[in-house]
């Protein structure tokens, strides 16, 4: 979070005015809307005045409905909630942050909204979680929840994230980064590099989340298809070794007044007996294939090591505000950092709020703490 003080006289009421921004241009548009649904339904309205701003799949900023049900994600939906025209286009003026937002409707003179005190960008994936919106808010002089431009960009790009973590001496799994050019020029070289990791491997977009575009590949015959699926979300693809072990996760909150980041004990994703992995359906719907355990049933020294590694990962990327750090706890007893999410989901099945709730911090209190 940009730690600028709230501007005196900027609020139209005694409440802090929060712009909740969601939707966006990425393939995780519906997940972002679902996260906004949770936040709009739980935010403390006695403390905060909320301005919901949606970003359409085409990138237009609009005044959105302040209705949690409108943005909820349902298992029976074919495509999920989508930000549309809503109530008028929103324009963000650049400068020192004291200027009001503008709303433009067809055939009308743009009108002013009162100034916003802080932005809560509930955006997942490219064009939101990757530093782009954070840069826009920096240019507009608006304080916001979460990591800054560089940490957001590095956290979104799995290739550079692993490079930074390796340089910081943190344990990560082996992987091969495949550019579109390399794949087009020398697919046999890519196949050989993947084979050196050992089959099976996981193929995923370098800059996407929510298990979008990920495939498990058991042999070379299926590699091309998996790369094509991943390239549908990002031209840069990561091939990762399959790690035999369990998945555990820690939730991190930035420290107050420069203090040490706060971290939960690890929770565990317990996969069903079908040999699957933690995919999109398992993350966001009650499929019966996963169980979330807190605290994770691991030895005390492993739990403490996971917490230390989570804080070290958070600080290696110079993160702020919040993050979820995911680990592999291997069969040999080793912890490997899988990835960091600088804007984890807030849906009812999301690990980040659940972990903090188990420590005694309610969903509403967590939102207030972040703001």
Structure description:
29% of the residues lie in helices and 23% in strands. The protein has helices at residues 29-42, 132-140, 149-156, 158-167, 180-185, 187-197, 223-231, 280-284, 300-316, 351-359, 363-370, and strands spanning 16-23, 48-55, 61-63, 89-91, 102-104, 111-112, 118-122, 175-178, 201-205, 215-217, 237-241, 245-253, 262-263, 267-271, 290-293, 322-330, 335-341. Mean pLDDT is 88; it is low at 1-12. Strands 12, 13, 14, 15, 16 and 17 form a six-stranded antiparallel beta sheet that branches. A four-stranded mixed beta sheet has the order 3-2-1-7, with helices on both faces. Strands 8-11-9-10 form a four-stranded antiparallel beta sheet. The chain is an alpha+beta fold and 371 residues long.
Brief summary:
This protein is of the alpha+beta class.
């Amino acid at each position: 979070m940009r730690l600028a003080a709230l501007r005196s006289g900027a609020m139209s009421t005694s409440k802090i005015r929060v712009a909740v921004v969601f939707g966006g241009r990425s393939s995780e548009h519906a997940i972002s809307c679902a996260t906004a649904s949770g936040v709009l339904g739980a935010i403390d309205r006695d403390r905060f005045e909320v301005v919901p701003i949606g970003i359409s799949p085409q990138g237009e900023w609009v005044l959105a409905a302040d209705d949690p049900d409108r943005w909820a994600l349902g298992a029976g939906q074919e495509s999920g909630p989508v930000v549309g025209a809503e109530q008028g286009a929103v324009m963000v003026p650049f400068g020192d942050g004291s200027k009001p937002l503008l709303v433009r409707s067809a055939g009308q003179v743009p009108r002013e909204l009162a100034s916003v005190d802080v932005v809560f960008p509930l955006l997942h994936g490219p064009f939101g979680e990757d530093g782009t919106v954070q840069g826009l808010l920096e240019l507009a002089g608006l304080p916001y929840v979460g990591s800054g431009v560089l940490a957001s960009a590095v956290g979104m790009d799995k290739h550079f994230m692993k490079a930074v973590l390796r340089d910081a001496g943190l344990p990560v799994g082996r992987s091969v980064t495949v550019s579109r050019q390399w794949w087009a020029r020398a697919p046999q070289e890519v196949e050989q590099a993947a084979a050196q990791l050992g089959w099976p491997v996981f193929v995923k977009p370098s800059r996407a989340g929510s298990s979008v575009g990920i495939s498990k590949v058991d042999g070379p015959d299926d590699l091309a298809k998996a790369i094509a699926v991943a390239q549908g979300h990002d031209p840069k693809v990561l091939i990762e070794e399959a790690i035999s072990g369990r998945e555990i996760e820690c939730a991190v909150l930035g420290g107050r007044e420069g203090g040490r980041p706060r971290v939960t004990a690890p929770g565990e994703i317990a996969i069903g007996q079908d040999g699957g992995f933690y995919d999109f359906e398992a993350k966001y719907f009650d499929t019966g294939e996963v169980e979330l355990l807190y605290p994770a049933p691991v030895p005390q020294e492993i739990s403490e090591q996971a917490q230390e590694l989570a804080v070290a990962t958070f600080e290696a990327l110079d993160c702020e505000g919040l993050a979820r750090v995911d680990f592999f706890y291997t069969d040999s007893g080793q912890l490997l950092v899988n990835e960091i999410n600088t804007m984890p989901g807030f849906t009812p099945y999301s690990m980040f709020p659940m972990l903090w709730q188990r420590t005694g911090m309610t969903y509403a209190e967590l939102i207030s703490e972040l703001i």
